[in-house]
Design goal:
Order of helices and strands of chain B: HHHHEEHHHHHHHH
Number of strands of chain B: 2
Strand content of chain B: under 5%
CATH architecture of chain B: Orthogonal Bundle
Distance between the termini of chain A: 21 Å
Number of strands of chain A: 6
Number of helices of chain B: 12
Structural class of chain B: mainly alpha
Helix content of chain B: over 70%
Structural class of chain A: mainly alpha
CATH class of chain B: Mainly Alpha
Shape of chain A: globular
Order of helices and strands of chain A: HHHHEEHHEEEHHHHEHHHH
Strand order of the largest sheet of chain B: 1-2
Oligomer: heterodimer
Largest sheet of chain B: 2 strands, antiparallel
Number of domains of chain B: 1
Number of helices of chain A: 14
């Protein structure tokens, strides 16, 4: 099992390298941009997949967490704190060395939060929101859970759309680059930005983060916590075997929110901006669709489908029918292959059922 | 707040509340028959308004509305037959995702057929500025139409469910699926019928509200959330309580405008929904006993 996991992760790394080589050989470098974005969206999808597939909880509000991450990171690194520099909070941040002074286009003094600090704050905020929302929301089941998360997503969307601080309908633009690592030895600095000459670097950063995220989730699924998660499908049995179901659900909910927020932060820096459409309910539905297509209890399926379909959608393959294609995919998969397209063979399921006594049918 | 303004807000609240109540009743009918929350309910409302607007050049207003309701009922039936009828005991998660998919398909089809333009039916009586006075308060005649439509619909539904054989069969189906089938009731047909009924009710709501709120291809989703809020607030499946809950939410929303910016109005309704779900998920009029028996 362990060897297989490492092998699969190595295959994913290899796939990234092969993709890059293929693109370099055919001279289609412009694909790299969409592949980078698709990898970040893939991160959201595998996080949500763990929540839906393993913990059995639907969330129609994950675009909300994505937006909290992206918007906060974008706002903190762009909005000028100069007029507020005498406020205690700003002073505290300054004394901790988390603020960066600079100049805006017209040469006026600009004081913003450094990207690393903004990233940490944004992801922490998303995790906290998930924690606070998760406690009551995860007590709900079925339709109620779906509607509550949908409601949460809508509120986040409305708040970002209506707040002048977050740019209202225009969103936030001119988000600076995110220097992940300083220049070390012979290597240049690792920077997340949409600069054309850093395309290859950003492609590998995105896929690196995706591989890391997948590895983390695979470890989680295979661990004691993962077994507890899978038992959540029959909560009575789980409780009887001593699994703290409420806590388990909450942990996965927060973890998937963190995945979405990290993707949001990275994409805001990569695209150099973020708009309210990233928070829209349709985005959340799309993440659910991607999880469903990949097969809910199938991390690799969701990863492949998430990255693949997002890439096609970003390339504009579906044209004006983009949303409709996702709606049709949702219905078709749920009608004909509720276990997902990848590995939908019942043979695997049968095998699992035989191997794991009392496993989920 | 002046006395007049208070009444003005109140009437606005009652108008919107009636619309929410009608949408909520649509949710309830399908929920009772199938245990499904139809996430595409708001799209029925949108379709009703849109089809009526499109038919208006060819038909008088009354016939256009009647035709729109019938066509939407047909669409409801087709949806049920295509996507739901042949599924053998699907899980709740699966049904949620399927109905969400249906709502996307309907919305996107509407976008391709009618475009992004905002349309509306003409006022049924008079025009935008026609008002009549009730004391010192000015009321648009359309408000009366909306409230009357809601009242007539409630009365007709209760007669239908109480007195007609089909209505009774539907209630039997809601009370106990298996027992109804054992009594020779075709439960599958009842489910189709419930989709038609709910689509028709939604379409009628879409028509009477269209002059006031206008109709756009994506106007369904926010209505669906509010209709669901009302359905929950009243206790799922309880249509009479849904009316009371609808009026309550409509009034709260109308008065909230005087406190918070309009942009946050939707957020308020949803925050109320979340609060209810967290504190009293069986609704303010529902009992926890019956709620426990239903599977959510």
């Amino acid at each position: 099992m362990r060897a297989r996991k490492t092998l699969a992760l190595a295959a994913l790394c290899l796939a990234a390298v092969v993709l890059h080589l293929l693109i370099a050989a055919t001279g289609t470098q412009f694909y790299l941009t969409q592949l980078t974005m698709a990898a970040y969206y893939g991160l959201v999808v595998i996080g949500l997949g763990t929540l839906m597939g393993y913990a059995g909880q639907i969330s129609l509000g994950h675009a909300g967490f994505f937006a909290i991450g992206g918007y906060l990171a974008a706002a903190l690194t762009t909005r000028n704190l100069q007029p507020f520099q005498d406020m205690p909070v700003v002073r505290l941040l300054d004394s901790l060395g988390l603020l960066a002074a600079g100049q805006d286009i017209s040469g006026a003094a600009l004081l913003t939060v450094t990207p690393w600090a903004a990233c940490a704050l944004a992801v922490t905020a998303a995790a906290l929101v998930a924690l606070v929302i998760g406690v009551p929301v995860l007590k709900l089941k079925g339709h109620y859970l779906a509607m509550a998360t949908l409601g949460f997503g809508t509120i986040v969307y409305r708040v970002f759309l209506a707040s002048p601080y977050f740019g209202e309908a225009d969103g936030i633009v001119e988000v600076p680059a995110f220097p992940l690592l300083p220049a070390l030895g012979g290597f240049g600095p690792v920077v997340v930005s949409g600069n054309a000459d850093q395309r290859v670097l950003n492609f590998y950063v995105a896929w690196g983060i995706l591989v890391l995220g997948a590895a983390l989730l695979l470890n989680l699924i295979g661990s004691r916590v993962g077994r507890a998660l899978r038992s959540l499908h029959s909560p009575e049995a789980a409780e009887a075997s001593g699994v703290a179901t409420a806590r388990c659900k909450l942990q996965v909910f927060v973890l998937s929110a963190v995945y979405a927020a990290v993707a949001g932060v990275m994409l805001a820096h990569f695209n150099g901006g973020i708009g309210p459409s990233e928070a829209s309910v349709m985005k959340s539905v799309r993440y659910v669709a991607l999880v469903a297509v990949g097969g809910m209890t199938n991390l690799w399926g969701t990863l492949i489908m998430g990255v693949g379909l997002t890439f096609l959608s970003l390339r504009g393959v579906f044209g004006v029918h983009d949303d409709m294609v996702f709606g049709a995919i949702l219905i078709a998969v749920m009608l004909f292959a509720p276990e997902g397209l990848v590995c939908s063979g019942s043979r695997v399921k049968e095998l699992v059922r035989r191997l794991v006594p009392g496993g989920r049918p | 707040m002046s006395f007049d303004l208070f009444w003005q807000y109140l009437f606005a609240g009652i108008t919107y509340g009636s619309i929410y109540a009608i949408v909520a009743i649509g949710f309830n009918i399908i929920y009772n028959a199938t245990g499904i929350i139809n996430f595409a309910q708001g799209e029925f409302v949108m379709l009703g308004g849109m089809i009526a607007v499109s038919l208006l050049p060819h038909l008088p207003l009354g016939y256009a509305i009647a035709a729109a309701v019938l066509i939407t009922m047909g669409i409801g039936a087709v949806i049920e037959v295509l996507f739901i009828r042949w599924l053998a005991s699907p899980s709740v998660l699966r049904m949620i995702i399927i109905t969400i998919g249906i709502s996307i398909l309907l919305r996107e089809s509407a976008l391709h057929i009618w475009g992004e333009s905002i349309r509306s039916l003409p006022y049924f009586y008079g025009n935008e500025i026609t008002t009549f006075h009730l004391g010192s308060v000015r009321i648009s005649p359309q408000v009366v139409w909306v409230i009357a439509a809601c009242a007539v619909m409630m009365a007709a539904l209760s007669v239908f469910f109480k007195s007609t054989p089909i209505g009774r069969e539907m209630r039997a189906c809601a009370a106990n699926h298996t027992a109804a089938r054992l009594c020779g009731i075709n439960t599958r047909n009842m489910v189709t019928l419930s989709f038609m009924l709910s689509a028709g009710i939604g379409a009628l709501a879409g028509c009477v509200m269209s002059p006031i709120t206008s109709t756009q291809y994506d106007s369904g989703s926010s209505l669906a959330i509010k209709g669901f809020t009302v359905a929950i607030l009243g206790g799922l499946g309880n249509s009479l309580a849904a009316v009371a809950a609808g009026l309550l939410l409509g009034t709260i929303e109308a008065f909230s405008v005087s406190v918070v910016p309009l942009a946050f109005q939707d957020a308020i309704a949803i925050a109320i929904l979340l609060l209810i779900l967290f504190v009293k998920p069986h609704g303010i009029f529902g009992s926890s006993e019956t709620a426990r028996l239903k599977d959510f």
